[in-house]
UniProtKB/TrEMBL annotation, chains A, B:
EC number(s) from the headed UniProt entry: 5.3.1.9
This protein's record includes keyword Isomerase: yes
Protein name (database record): Glucose-6-phosphate isomerase
PANTHER family: GLUCOSE-6-PHOSPHATE ISOMERASE
Native species: Nitratifractor salsuginis (strain DSM 16511 / JCM 12458 / E9I37-1)
Recorded catalytic activity of this chain's protein: alpha-D-glucose 6-phosphate = beta-D-fructose 6-phosphate
The protein's annotated pathway: Carbohydrate degradation; glycolysis; D-glyceraldehyde 3-phosphate and glycerone phosphate from D-glucose: step 2/4
Length: 417, 417
């Protein structure tokens, strides 16, 4: 269960209502016209999960593997990494996941050292099929481990891409098993497609439950039973010039990759040139509590009033530590925390920080998970995707493209020719 | 060697010159009046390093240890973590470092599992001496490992704090070895004090060389041989309303913790209420290339013109991988990269992204390290501290305090009483 709260005072009722209705209608239209297809993933991806469970999990290759290597970058890795980061704590039996993303020779060398190819499954993920980082890292993996796709090695290779892409055609050439991403689902909205579901299912996560949680909020949203999403998205987009930055303050180190996933989703979707040719956009910032109270809180408290802050927290942790009843001489003032759990301290810090930021008139809101579960994470993913769509619809931009990244790709190719 | 470039056109010469001189004079005054003391650390900390090297490194306890555990948060951990993250690649023989920072029961449980107390050294670091997260995690460590500070266990305990703090008094009570932080050096400016130097020296890093690199840029700055720092700081502060956000785009995954250190330094120093009672501030964002080209580049390229971008890169990596000459059928268009090194690809991505962002009129600048070395990292640390001081002096704020974090601390204590 997730509890959503919005702390700012509701604005003019009739106008807000009209803006919410307008955003809602746009999204219904986007869905009906197939402009974006992520709304259907919670249902459609069940087939993929069931197929992986029925045909791959029982094989000797998968059974004997202890590692799932994801070769992909950006939308092809961030989502699965975020889910692995959070769900690992309740799924200790899941196979280890290694993400080969950044073409950084130091990091890649270290990660390759840790991989035993005979006990690994490799997912090569690229929507377009031609992502330079991904195909390059794949070549390095083939070379380093002597993998020959034309041999029985192909049983440990899985390709996830758009149907008909150059990567799909490569896979067909060698008989490598391929899974497809719907054409109208962009990378940053694709974690609940084969992009996330195949590697996470191979690793042993309960992906069906992730989809179940996601489906619940899709249904609630389109039934107008989750209007808080509309309310928040319309507020953020309507005030983008007052509050150009949105901070996600997530309490728990395991949420670090989730915060990165949010930054990609929000930043790449909502920084655009609008229909009038104006540059508009909201800048996402991901921070982790309580660590970043010692880093970023001062700026939120006393710096310019240019940020909204969302607190994301979990009520009950799967692991707990009781703070021992030790009194350190001269530091007795801190004994008030003895006997409490470490999770209670973290939660207390979140509540105290939230209260102090709210007291400064900063628009705050909260997302409180009762516990870490597959359903909750699925819901959280879809919640943020819907919120992004609402904000984009209100801003009057194309939420789903990313034309600004093409120039750099062209310059790169020229540099090496 | 580090090469610094500024891409934006110089502004009105006489005015710029006057602003740079004014900022410089303020910093000279801050130094002379002892308002901040970090300028002296590169020289003063040599004694600490030499003492640790002479008296601790040869002991059996240190020799047999394979892990240095840092118990600290914010300014007490981020700096050492940043240096460990970067220098590890050229110092593979250094002892493993574990940072106990966040009071997150999931993460702490996992890290405690990985610690063998008989082969570990524990640095308990808190400037005030009473940081609730730090004293709590210390109690958990004492309890979990059955460490008794009154026994010979104290040989593996080290306290780093302000002289006379409650933590110092606690250490004295038990005869635990203490190191001090100068009173006029705040947490986020303290990495070159005992805060960073003691754990890093214990781990086996060449800390003297870090200090040497730092000293070079302090000298250059006060000799007016590094005026690019003044130029950049004055520009950022003078245009804080046009460009309220400063992005550090660092190429290399090993720079991730360095980017976090920068975010703390910049955010906590430069988000303030100024002498006129106005809220002013610059918001730092840390991003890692090339990964975040797939996440944040679109927003920089087409979103509002509200950001400056600094590119940080390394020319030569200590480890390299040659991209094998493999042609993937149907993906031959990517063969242009074959035979190059992975570092060349990363560098090419940096250059291409830099060029594409510059083409949009975004103010960009560059920091290029010829290689990863202790001297370069020491210089980079001090460069950013000086830049922060220049920006703060130009903004007319107190760069070195953090009054905004006190309210949350008070609310926290009340919650548990």
């Amino acid at each position: 269960m997730i509890d959503y709260t919005i702390d700012w005072m509701p604005e003019n009722g009739a106008e807000l209502e009209a803006n919410m209705n307008e955003a809602f209608e746009k999204i219904v239209e986007e869905r009906e016209r197939g402009i974006s297809g992520y709304y259907f993933l919670p249902q459609d991806s069940r087939m993929i999960v069931e197929e992986v469970e029925a045909t791959l999990l029982p094989t000797q290759t998968v059974q004997e593997a202890d590692t799932v290597v994801v070769i992909g970058i950006g939308g092809s890795s961030l989502g699965a990494k975020a889910l692995d980061g959070v769900l690992r704590s309740i799924t200790p039996e899941a196979k280890r996941m290694v993400f080969l993303e950044n073409p950084d020779p130091v990091e890649v060398s270290e990660k390759l050292e840790s991989i035993d190819p005979d006990k690994s499954l490799f997912c090569i993920i690229s929507k377009s099929g031609g992502t330079i980082e991904t195909t390059t890292l794949y070549k390095i993996v083939l070379d380093r481990f002597g993998l020959r796709p034309e041999s029985e090695h192909k049983e440990r290779l899985f390709v996830i891409t758009d149907e008909g892409s150059i990567l799909h055609r490569y896979a067909e050439e060698h008989g490598i098993k391929s899974y497809f991403i719907p054409h109208n689902v962009g990378g940053r909205f694709s974690v609940l497609s084969a992009v996330g579901m195949v590697p996470l299912t191979l690793a042993g996560y309960k992906t069906c439950d992730i989809l179940k949680g996601a489906q619940q909020i899709v249904k609630a949203f389109f039934d107008r039973q989750a209007d808080h999403i509309l309310q928040k998205g319309v507020f953020y987009a309507g005030h983008w010039q007052d509050y150009p930055m949105n901070v996600l303050f997530a309490y728990g180190s395991f949420l670090e990759d989730f915060a990165k996933w949010y930054v990609q989703l929000w930043g790449e979707s909502l920084g655009k040139i609008d229909a009038q040719g104006e540059r508009v956009g909201l800048t996402p910032l991901g921070h982790i509590g309580s660590v970043d109270q010692h880093s970023f809180l001062q700026l939120i408290m006393e710096g310019p009033r240019d940020k909204t802050v969302t607190f994301l927290k979990v009520e009950h942790f799967p692991t707990e530590i009781t703070i021992p009843d030790i009194s350190l001489k001269h530091i007795e003032k801190n004994d008030y925390i003895n006997g409490h759990s470490l999770g209670e301290l973290l939660d207390g810090e979140c509540e105290a920080t939230w209260e102090s930021i709210r007291s400064q008139g900063v628009p705050t809101d909260g997302i409180v998970l009762d516990r870490i579960s597959e359903e909750n994470l699925g819901e959280l993913i879809l919640y943020y995707e819907l919120l992004t769509s609402v904000a984009g619809a209100t801003l009057g931009i194309d939420t789903y493209n990313q034309p600004g990244v093409e120039l750099g790709k062209k310059i790169l190719v020229k540099k090496f020719h």
